[in-house]
Each structure stands twice: as C-alpha cells, then as structure tokens.
Amino acid sequence: MPHLPDFEAWAIFAKVAERGSFSHAAEELGLAKTTVSKAVTRLEERMRTTLLHRTTRKLSLTESGRQSLERATRILADGASVEAEMLEEAAIPRGLIRIGCTTAFGIDKLAAVLPGFMQRYPEIEIDLELTDRRIDLVSDSFDFVLRVGPVADSTMRISRLFAFRVPVVASPGYFAKHGVPTHPTELANLPALVFTHIAGADAWHFTHPEHGEVTVHVDGPVHMNNGVAAVPALVAGLGITALPEAYVWQELQDGRLTEVLKDWPVTPAAVNVISPPGRARPARVRVLLEHLRQHFSSQPWAHGIET
Description:
By secondary structure, the chain is of the alpha+beta class. 40% of the residues lie in helices and 24% in strands.
C-alpha cells in the first residue's frame, strides 16, 4: 500500500550525521534529545536496517547510512529552502496578486490607483478581474476581492476598506419636470433608475434621526447593471436614483446633478475586502491594501476608512 515517506525522520538523520551527536543535533533543531533519537530509530525500523553505529563515545555511519546520507541531506536542505522562500515571500513585497473587483468600482476608481502602486513596487505583478458575478476565492486562487455593498458569505475573511455615502440624485431638468420630493415615500410615484446587478436594488432604505426608518420600492423606464454607466442617463434627466457618491461627485459639484432628501440618508454602501479564511496575508497583499487605504482616505467621498 502506498505510504508517505518519513521526511521528518530523514531530515533529523541528516542533521545527526552532520553534527555527529544526538545532543548537538537536538539543540540545533530545537528538539528534545529523545525526540531525535526516536526519529532515527523509527527510520531504521521502517527501513529494516541500521543507519548509525552508536557507542558511548561517538556515532558513525553504517554502509546503509552512507548510501542514504546524500539524499537525506538533500531532503533537509530542500525543506529549509522552501521555508526560507516562504518566509521571504511573507516579508518582502514581491510576486503576483490576483484581485477580483466589482466592475463599476474597478473601472472608475480602482484601476486609476494601481499604476502608481506598481511603480512603487516594481517586483509585484497584478492580475485584476472585473466582474459582478460571485467569485470562489479559494478555487479561483484570488488573494482578495473588493465588493461594494453587503456580503453574504460569512465563511470568508471580511474587513471594511471604507464606505460610500449614497445620495439620492437627479438632474435639475428632472426636478423641474417632476417636482422635488420632500419625503422618501414620494419616490414611489417618480420615474427611477433601477440597478439590476444588486439584489433588492429596487427597495431604498432611509433613516431619519427623528422619524425613524422608511423603505420605498421604486421603478422606472431605465434599468442598468452598472453604476458608472448610469451617470449619463441621470444627467439627461431619465430618472432619479440612489448612487454611491464617488460615481457622481463631479456632477454634483458642477451642478449637472442635484441631491435631494439630505435629511433622510440612504444606508451607506461599504467597500469590503474579502479574502480566504485562516490565511495570513503576504507582504505584497498587505502593502497593496495599505496603499488603497491611504489613497481612498484622501478622497472627499470616502468615509470610515479602516485602520
């Protein structure tokens, strides 16, 4: 029946042969002398041969021990090399980072941040996939995914990067034609722009510090699955919508869009970092996330940056 070689015992045997002593080998390996002795004995019993001659004064290799020492030493060296490379990878920012990101946020915000990061860290490579589909981080080998809005998968490691304020906006022409709503319930009778890529996007949730919570169901002639693509339709007066402030910041500043119902804020939209569970983030991922935090903390539309 196939079995796994006893790599630990072979590595211990190589160290004992190198040091010429169970005690010295145990001290260098950080193990108890009995553990080292038992490992070599276990190996000899498994191989049905003697690898070391043991006397009260010294150890010496048998013929079987001499024949196997070179490969045992290679096992020890290869194991040490693997660990050294992994530790270096965890400490030095280099290598490939696979990122998944919501399409609108990736195109409009994330893509502009990455060139500066890569110039700062030339040994890091980026593989960015923009998609609104659900990603299996483990099977697809992603280091992390950025998602805007609520995250249902509690088995993943989830942390908030920052949050968007979500204003209710439309063009001045839209309000001139349909009137300016003064209460969220009035939105049910107004033509809205509705997003189709977010579950429950036709139900807008408002909170007032004095009057509590209100949920309004909306509909309209325009449905889209991308927040950035919705901006021209909003400017053209085709609907009213609740959209992350980042996507309409400039339009609000120059007056092409107007915010209403400021006293009734919509639930903020969090940008979450989702990564595989129980896995320490290597240096390349840590420095990228820190770079993103520093960049977005300087943006006027980003709130609640996590530290």
